[in-house]
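Onboarding guide, step 5: your first structure request.
Type a short instruction followed by the sequence, for example:

Predict the 3D structure of this protein.
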Amino acid sequence: MEFELWWLLALPLFFGLGWMAARVDIRHVMTESRSVPASYFKGLNFLLNEQPDKAIEAFIEVVKVDSDTVDLHFALGGLFRKRGEVERAIRMHQNLVAREDLSAERQLKALSELGQDYLKAGLLDRAEEIFNRLQTSDAAGKARQFLLEIYVQEKDWQKAVVAARELSQICNQPYHTEIAHYLCELANYAYVHGQIDAARGHLSEALQANRDCVRANVLLGDIEASQGNHEAAIAAWRRIETQSIAHLALVTERIMSAYRELGREAEGVSYLRGALARQPSYELFSTVFTGTLKLSGAAAAYQLARETLQSQPSLRGLDRLLEAELLTAPVERQSDLQLKKGIVQRYSQRQSMYQCDHCGFKARSFFWHCPACSHWDSFPPQQKEE
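The system replies with structure tokens like these:
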């Protein structure tokens, strides 16, 4: 390959152009750094030294000095909301909404942030008004998600159903679990107010939305039992086994009660004993134990408790074993057994809790909707022993 002389002439030219570009960039950086208030760098320094409160105060000074720092306004407003300082967040975002020099995109963002502030503050009517305004904008998807959250908090289940169905179409995200629960809430309301046919209709719709909705069959069984239709109630509750056999733990006592009403208590014990073999749980065992004790006596109940305790050790199971033993024990041993049973019972009741799988919230009662994290179906149907 021949070496061309003009390359030697071009090299100094390229070097000079590069040097000039570097000088321009350096001057630009220096100019920008002079225009940034000193409080900004103080705030960064506080953040690096893990002093967030002082950093926030420094950034507030920047905002006071330079009102054009829109991104910093957004950042501070979001930070205030996360820290629970909702009033400061509202003031920050209200100032942004009032500015006429913001682009359309930033105006939408400011409105959305203000709506979230109101939602966090519990001002649901103001939040709903803002997110309704945003439904015709580019932020419609997020606005509908926040509206759904508002309807759930307000327990406006009819609006929640509509909003969830719209979201499932717009966002291509399944909401069948939530929709089924909203319909169950409507069914429960109708049932409490004596609207039996309406309640049944909502539950049928819930099972269409989510065929694995255990709650719908629980409620349907309750409705049928209240109307004296014990066969239909048992059929509804037994369908739970095909959805989630673990959730039979929630209705074992109801199933036995319905069989008892029909005069077929032995059949109920037999069915639940089979379910216990397929899905061990204390709730199933406890109901079978009571039925066995009544129908077959203390010795059979003791044997059942002993077998269950060997495979599934628990304080509550031990309490039942002591109960059966106490019934057949000689008089001289009964006081000692009663003392043991009392201690075990006290500790087992104290340590048995339902616990949310999502956030770890613990409660004595079972919830379909976690009071702490607002997730649906996050509570396992069986209590855990600490």
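Each response can be followed by summary notes, for example: The first strand starts at residue 352 and ends at 355.
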